[in-house]
Amino acid sequence: MLKPLATEYRLLAYVVSMQVVVLAMVAAIVYDAAGGVHTLAHWEQAIRTDSLPILRAMASRPLYLTLWIAGIGTALLLAFSAFAYRELFLDLRQKRDLRRRLAHESSHDALTGVLNRAYFMDYFEYAVRAAERDADRLALLYIDLDRFEALNAAFGYRAGDDVLRAVARGWQAEKRSADVFARLGGDEFALLMAHAGPELDVLAVANRLMASCREVDAWANRFDLGACVGIAFFPEDGTTPDVLLRKAELAVQRAKRRGRHQVCFYRESIAAAMSRADRLRNELPRAIARGELYVVYQPVVEAKSGELVSAEALVRWRHKEFGELSPGEFLPVAEEARLMPAITRRVMEQAIASLAAWRESGLSLTISLNISAQDCQLYGDLVDDLSRAVAEHGVKPEDVEIELTEQSLMEHAAEDLVRSLCQRGFRIALDDFGTGYASLAYLQRFQVTRIKIDRSYVARLYTNEYYERLIRAVMALAGELGLEVTAEGVETAEQEALLRAIGVNRLQGFRYGRPVTASALQEVAAGHTDPL
């Protein structure tokens, strides 16, 4: 702002100076015409006799003062004009550059340098009209990064910004020249493909986009990021940009519910499922208050003896219309609505009450409770509530094992939470071990007593020998650190035999029973019924 003002002041000074010079020249000419020649003769005589030699030399020539003034004035006028034109040229160039910069900023994202949402939607309108005229087919790819919040929590927002810029550059390089790529906001991007071919061709593009960001560098650390992609087509799925964008967003939400690194094409069934999710989101707070959420328990057995020694508390929702809902259907809704702490309190109260009932009946079982990332943010209340519950029901804190995932441990307050839990006597287990990038670092930082091998490792034991070697390596590591190991997802006798041979301490999965109520598990533990 100050620089343009300074330029205007300089131009004004040049104009005023030129006006003064012109006025002086006019005055000299008028004076000369009015009879100033006689006076000039006296001045010339004085100059010849009294002034410096150079002035006497000039005055001795047949030049009048008017001509001197005109000549000097003309030179000054030309100089001032040159300076004025120079400043005017610079000012115009600065204004032109400013217009270009403002036009770029109005159409491009400030962080990544790709197109922004507003410009993308304007172009989308034009592309739809052109496709209608030419009977063309468009494909809209809605891209949402996985675990970007976890990356920000682990390395900070500056590292997150660096990763966004790097990912955007990579995706920009992957697109065709006819495609348009933009950042919609946050960690969400869109790619509009003109002349879109069959679904398999578009799927290949989506897979390349996901592969390019599967692992990223975050301040000299490798981070398992990844992305999910939702795809909608013009004209099959919609004929306006808003409708297509909404349907592609529904598709990417369905993809994220399936897991990481997923692609989903829009289908009409997705819209029905999302409307069901909207209903669950609206009804979940009332369901928690009315006690529609209840706890079931999955058995955990000792690997060597096969004896039932523990149970993991899992939550279910008995919906009045949809029936029994699994956690995979309503817990993502609870996370979006920030309701996980309330659900954790319900599960904790019922599970510890069940543990007390088992103890009174003579069963020496322990129990495992899952803690979410949102619970870590309110760890002070959580630890107090846990301590109060075990005290009220007369059970020992060491009989309660708290399971935390890597995502939970990435919270800034996680270290304080684990320290407080250990000080109160609770045990800590690292759940889904091996699915993240920094499990070994967490074993060093946190006072973990048990690690739980993710079910995906167990499921691939007989399809890929790499996973057998990996589980053996985990067991060797646990032995060195004095940790116990539980394998999740055991379903077959072959898996059980191999895990026992490897030396896993405890086993959990459908082979030992599906999640059941507290009374049903008590019957199983007492030997009155077989595992379900």
From TrEMBL:
InterPro entries: Biofilm_reg_signaling, EAL_dom, EAL_sf, GGDEF_dom, Nucleotide_cyclase, Rev_trsase/Diguanyl_cyclase. SUPFAM superfamilies: EAL domain-like, Nucleotide cyclase. CDD domains: EAL, GGDEF. Residues 136-268 form the GGDEF domain. Keywords: Membrane, Transmembrane, Transmembrane helix. The chain crosses the membrane at residues 12-31, 63-85. The keyword Transmembrane helix applies. Residues 277-529 form the EAL domain. NCBIfam families: GGDEF (TIGR00254). This is Bifunctional diguanylate cyclase/phosphodiesterase.
